[in-house]
Amino acid sequence: MSEAESPADARTVIMLTSPLEAEHAARISSVFPDRVEVIFRPDLMPALRYRGDHGDPSWRRTPEQERAWHELLRRAEILIDFPQNERLPVLELAPRLRWVQTTSAGVGPLVKRLGLQDADLIVTTASGIHAQPLAEFVFAALLFHGKELGRLQNDQRARQWNRFSGSELAGRTMAIIGPGRIGQEIAGIARAFRMRVVAMGRINDAARAASLGVDRLYGRDELRTMLGEADCLVVCAPQTPETDDLLGAAELASLKPGAVFINIGRGTIVDEDALLAALRNGSIAYAALDVFREEPLPPDSPFWDLPNVLINPHSASTVDTENAKIVDLFLRNLGHYLNGDISQMAPRLDPHRLY
Amino acid sequence: MSEAESPADARTVIMLTSPLEAEHAARISSVFPDRVEVIFRPDLMPALRYRGDHGDPSWRRTPEQERAWHELLRRAEILIDFPQNERLPVLELAPRLRWVQTTSAGVGPLVKRLGLQDADLIVTTASGIHAQPLAEFVFAALLFHGKELGRLQNDQRARQWNRFSGSELAGRTMAIIGPGRIGQEIAGIARAFRMRVVAMGRINDAARAASLGVDRLYGRDELRTMLGEADCLVVCAPQTPETDDLLGAAELASLKPGAVFINIGRGTIVDEDALLAALRNGSIAYAALDVFREEPLPPDSPFWDLPNVLINPHSASTVDTENAKIVDLFLRNLGHYLNGDISQMAPRLDPHRLY
Fold first, then answer.
1. Predicted ipTM?
2. Which of A194, A223, B99, B299 sees the fewest Cβ atoms within 10 Å?
3. Are residues A273 and A139 part of one domain?
4. Which residue of A lies nearest to B162 if distances are taken between CA atoms?
C-alpha cells in the first residue's frame, strides 16, 4: 500500500454503500486525490431523509440499478458501510475488499451474521462518534425526571405558581452497564454533577476503575449488588451474547426503589415485559428508552402510553454533525491505510468480542 | 467569645426567625449544648409548606404572638435569617445581635434596605448552598431544548416513530453572567459536556479565567461582544446596582440567533418586554426563567403561554436537602464564632458589593 507500490493508474477504490451528504463525499475525494478514487452514487442509494441519516433500510434498487451497483462493488477495496440487503456474501460481491469503515458502532452482530468473524478484513467502526450525543440524551432524560420538568409544564399550562422542593442528582449513584467510550463520556459528566458512578466491567480492579473515571467497578457476578446501589441505571452496552437478556425481572427488582432506567444500548439486553411491570408498579420511577427489541416500536406497544416513559426513536445518537465526524475518522484511518500503518487504524472491531 | 469568657449562665443565644424542620433545629442545640441556647418557636412562625421551605412571607403573627416574638428577639445574639415584616430596625429589635446567618444567598438588597451596610454585624449567607440545584436546573432546561424532548413527547403521544437528527451541546458556547459559586458550578458541568464557556466578570485576566474554570472572561464593557459568541446565556448574578437592567433590547439582540436564555439570578437584570419580543420573534429560541420582576408571576403574564418558555416558580434552588446543608454551614460558622475565629466565618456578605 505504500506509494511506491501504488501506480497512478491503480488508485485505491473507495465506495460508499450508504448515502452521505455530497459535501462529505467531496471531502473524501479531495484529501488524497491522486491516490484514491471515490465511488459515490446517490442515484443507487436511498435518499437522505435528514442530516446524519444513513437511508431508509427498506429502500430497494431496480434490477438495472442492482447490476450497476454490483459492478461497482467488484472494484472496491474500501467500503464505507457494509452493503445492505444483499443475497451474496460481501466478499463475493467485493472480492478486492480489504477494509470496511462502518457508520455505526454496534456492528458486531452484523459481522457475525455476514460470517466475517474470521475473514481477513479490517473493520473500523464509528465507536466513539456517538458518545457525546448519547451522553447528552442520558442527562436530558435524567434531569427531565429529576428536576420535575413535567410538573413545571403542567403548572405552567395552568398558570400556577406552585413553589416546591425538588431533588438533586448530586450525591446519587449512577450505575453503568457498558463502560466503553459512551459509558466513559457519561461517567465524566455524572462526576461533574457530583454523582457517584459505578459500572460493571469485565476487568474490575481499582486501576481500571480509575482509568474509566468511575468510583467502583463490579464484575458480572456482582451485577445485582451493583444494581442495589443504583439510583439510576444506564445501559450502554453493545449487543453481544454476553449482554443478551442480561436484565430480567430479578435484576430490575434489585434496583433501588424509584430508580431511573435508561437504555441507549440495545433492546435485547432487557426483558421488556419485566420492565413494563416495574414501570407500572413504580418500582422503576422513570425510563428513557432509545432502543427496543422491535424497531420501529410497534404502534400497539404499551410503552407509548406509560406516563413515566420517554421514548426516543433510536435517534439519541444522531446529530447533524455526525457525518462530518465520521468522515474525519475515516480520513484519519485512510491516511494510516495508505501508509501501510494498519495497526494505527482505530477503532477496530474485535471480531470475536464483537465490539 | 472564648470559653473562659463564657460563664455557664451566659450561653450564647441563637434564635431562628424562619422555620426549619424540627430535626435540623435539634441538631443546632445538640452540637454545643453547654455553650448555646437555641430559641426555636414554630408556634410563632409560618408553617412549612414543603421540605426546604422558609415559610409563607404573607403569614402574620397575632398581636400577642408578636409581643412574645419581640421579647425573644431582645435576647438574641445570633439570628438564623433576618426577621421579616418588622417595622422597627433589626438592631433595635435585637440590641444584642452580633451575627445573622441567612438561609438564602442574595440578601444584599435586604441588608441595604435594612440600613445595615455599615452596621457592626456579621452577615453570613447561604451562598454556595444553591449552586448545585441551580446548575442542575440550567442543564435540565438546556437539554430539554437541545435534545428536543418536547418533540419526543409529541411524537410519543401520537405513537409516531419519527427518526430525526438532533444537535449537541458539545462545541457550543455558554456565556455566564455572574461567575460566582453558582456560575463556577455551571461552568464545570458545561466543560464536562465539552462546551466552550465564557463569562463576564469584574476581573478579567487569564489567571482569573483559569481559576473560575472558564475559557475566557470579558469585562462589563465587552458585554455585547461576549453575547455575540453565546449559543446560550446563563444569568446567575445577584441583584446589585451593577446588574439592574443589565440586559436590554440591544443586549438581547446581540446574542447569536437562536440562542437559549436562562435566568436563575434576579428578574431585575433583564428587560422583560424585550425578552418577550425576542422570544416571540424567535431571535431567542428558548428561555428558562426561575426569576421574574414580579413574583409570583401574575396570572396574566404573557410568559405563561409562550411555547418556548419554561417557567420555574423560583424553586430551582430549592431541594429537599437544603436545610440540612444550611445547618451544616451554620454549625461550621458557629464553631468559629464561639472560638472567636470570626475571620474563618464564610461565606460573608460584603456589605458594599452586596453579595
1. 0.83
2. B299
3. yes
4. A313
Interface test with B, best of A138, A153, A157, A161 (most B CBs within 10 A): A161
Helix axes B131-146, B149-157, angle to 10 degrees: 60
Same domain, A273 and A325: no
Q: Grid coordinates standing for B280?
A: 416571540
Instruction: Please say if B352 is a catalytic residue.
Output: no
Per residue in B16-42, pLDDT tens? 999 988 999 999 999 998 999 999 999
CA-CA distance, A154 to B136, in Å (whole number)? Answer: 20
State the nearest Cα–Cα gap between B24 and chain A, in angstroms: 16
Kindly determine whether residue B315 and residue A159, on different chains, have CB atoms separated by under 8 Å: no
Neighbours of A127 (CB within 10 A): 22
Task: Report pLDDT digits (tens) over A200-237.
Answer: 987 778 888 888 889 999 999 999 999 999 999 999 98
Q: Are B52 and B133 in contact (CB under 8 A)?
A: no
pLDDT in tens, B262-315: 999 999 999 999 999 999 999 999 999 999 999 999 999 999 999 999 999 999
Of A170, A313, A321, which is closest to B163 when you measure between CB atoms?
Answer: A313
Q: Which of B314, B332, B336, B348 is catalytic?
A: B314
Question: Containing domain of residue A250, as a range?
Answer: 131-311
Active site residue B21: no
Query: First CA to last CA across chain B, in angstroms?
Result: 27
Q: What is the pTM of this model?
A: 0.83
CA distances from B64 to B15, B67, B255 (A): 19, 5, 55
Same structural domain, B151 and B125:
no
Do A224 and A123 share a structural domain?
no
The nearest alpha carbon in chain B to A316 belongs to: B166
Q: How far apart are CA B157 and CA A355, in angstroms?
A: 35
Q: What is the mean pLDDT of residues A290-307?
A: 97
Do residue A263 and residue A337 come from a single domain?
no
- Alpha helix segments (H runs only) across A129-173: 131-146, 149-157
Contact list in A for residue B51 (CB cut-off 8 A) is: 165
* All cell numbers assigned to A90: 460481501
Active site residue A242: no
Query: What was the pLDDT predicted at A1?
Result: 43
Q: Catalytic one among A41, A314, A332, A336?
A: A314
Of B188, B193, B296, nearest to A136 by CB-CB distance is B193
Average pLDDT of every residue of chain A: 92
Tell me the CATH number at A85. Answer: 3.40.50.720
Q: How many residue contacts between A and B have a Cβ separation below 8 Å?
A: 166
Residues B80-85: what's their mean pLDDT?
A: 91
User: Which of A104, A137, A160, A165 to substitute to test the interface with B, most B CBs within 10 Å?
Assistant: A165
pLDDT surpasses 90 at B223:
yes
